[in-house]
């Protein structure tokens, strides 16, 4: 076992070292070689070294180099050294993080990480927290707590009796609410379509002036960090209005919530701490391995009522059974990497990572503007939307950039305009990565215009 692990560490090290030289997207030959994996199930056992050799030889070249510094697609993050190494050690531990009894260390690391997270994100210190697989499940978890708490106030026990015959809840979203919130609403029986949509402004922010008058129980879903523009809903003002009628405010802050960790960007999220539940991703801007998300709920009892396997009362101060807070029961100890990331970065390191990536985004916007390209958003965080003339040209530029391999960006549509989206979410991105990528983008634009 020891030799095998040393062997795989060498191969992984070589892989990571090679990222700076290779194409960000895998080339056609690497994709063709994936056919080598299409073999019948072996009749007999194979040595683990042979299995790993095959995986590395065929698998590694066919990866997207998103662990490197020049992947800017969607909103991904990289993986911090301490987080990756902790992930390996935790893999060796093979802990089931369901109960304190099955993994005391997983339980305690979640508790420590929870306190640090609430501190660094500026959220109420007695929130309940769930360590889930991503923001989709974090939205689901926060909204499940919301649904249960609002109906409980009306004397309805939704966990026991379901939604059949329950009093109706109003759900308010914006035109720019992330599709995963709608999915979570569907999973919770609240309906993907049965929502009140508030219009947004030119940056994708919910318009507080167009906020509906609420009477009766309501869940209001706001967003901190629009996937296209990075903009943040006026969450403080919306909390004030929504709370006046007793509504529950849920924040989808999949990446944007981390902006609270830096004094430079925190003002953008002013008032976010007034909400009732928050969803965020750790695998995006915190740069831990997949899959890792977090839900925080101000009313910790509402979280346990929604998620506990049995309706047993959890006394305060008792050992944390992590499985009492999440949709899953058995699961890996994903708090380990969150703890390791925060332990290695410290408060200043986390703030620096957020500021550095935002700075890189600003540098992209500046460089592209200087080259004559149109930037469609106010670059307030780590997201940049670029248009290279008309839609057809922009799509050709994106295709060329992806094929060229120096960096990787995806396309999007922003308020009717075809655009390229640059998301700088990785700790690994350097100024030199930004400049190499800028040169590749400008080159691709020139080529797309036939120059
Ligand atoms: C990425 C993202 C999600 C979904 O997160 P997953 O981790 O992929 O489940 C939800 N909302 C926003 C705003 C996001 O950026």
How would you summarize the topology of this molecule?
Elements: H1 2-18, H2 28-32, H3 48-59, H4 81-93, H5 104-120, E1 128-132, H6 135-153, H7 158-161, E2 170-174, H8 179-187, E3 196-198, E4 218-223, H9 235-244, E5 248-252, E6 277-281, E7 293-297, H10 300-307, H11 335-370, E8 374-375, E9 383-387, H12 391-404, E10 410-414, E11 417-423, H13 431-448
Parallel strand pairs: 2-3, 2-4, 4-5, 5-6
Antiparallel strand pairs: 1-7, 6-7, 8-9, 9-11, 10-11
Bound molecules: pyridoxal-5'-phosphate.
Pyridoxal-5'-phosphate (PLP) binds at residues 75, 134-136, 178, 180, 223, 225, 227, 252, 254-255, 281, 293.
Brief account:
The protein is an alpha/beta fold. It has helices spanning 2-18, 28-32, 48-59, 81-93, 104-120, 135-153, 158-161, 179-187, 235-244, 300-307, 335-370, 391-404, 431-448, and strands at 128-132, 170-174, 196-198, 218-223, 248-252, 277-281, 293-297, 374-375, 383-387, 410-414, 417-423.
